[in-house]
Amino acid sequence: MRTRGLTLIELLVVIAILGILMAILYPVFAVAKRKAKEAKCITQLRQIGMAVQMYRTDTDDELPRRLSDLFPIYVTNEAIFRCPLDGRDGHHAYTGRLEGDRFLPSGVSYTYVPNWPKAIALGWWGAPPARGFGKWGEETPLIECHWHWAKVYDLQLAEDDLKTAKGNAVLVKKDGSIRLWPARVPVEQYEP
Length: 192
Fold this sequence. Notes:
By secondary structure, this protein is of the alpha+beta class. Helix content is 32%, strand content 12%.
């Protein structure tokens, strides 16, 4: 008894159908993967926000000088400081606001708003080391992740670029809660 196999034409049709299905499904899987990374980032920021609250409790409401000061007492896993969306995995040049790998060799992807000269100029925070209580008290932005809308960290980001940006910056407020802030809204218009 002879079994019938696939002809070359039938095999090519099956391969073409599989190729079409993959072309349709690939963007769906890419979006799902990005959303999973965004969710992980927000979870990490919540953990850092809770660590800041513990630090404040232990230091009579003082804020850390920088995010890496939370390691290893309040945050025991260095990976929490690196956003999964950051293409350079936290290894950036030090800018004050973004510490990169200057103080923590594994790197830090998130920016610390009290060290941002523009936030100090706008009166969100006082100058270090005291920094004050923040312009809006517990609602004042403390930590930011802009990797949800940016591919690179640009210290001199132009206002025009910001207006056309799509997506959200994720802010951790002084009270440890999370807020999504549309990247296209200039920081001067921040209202808690």
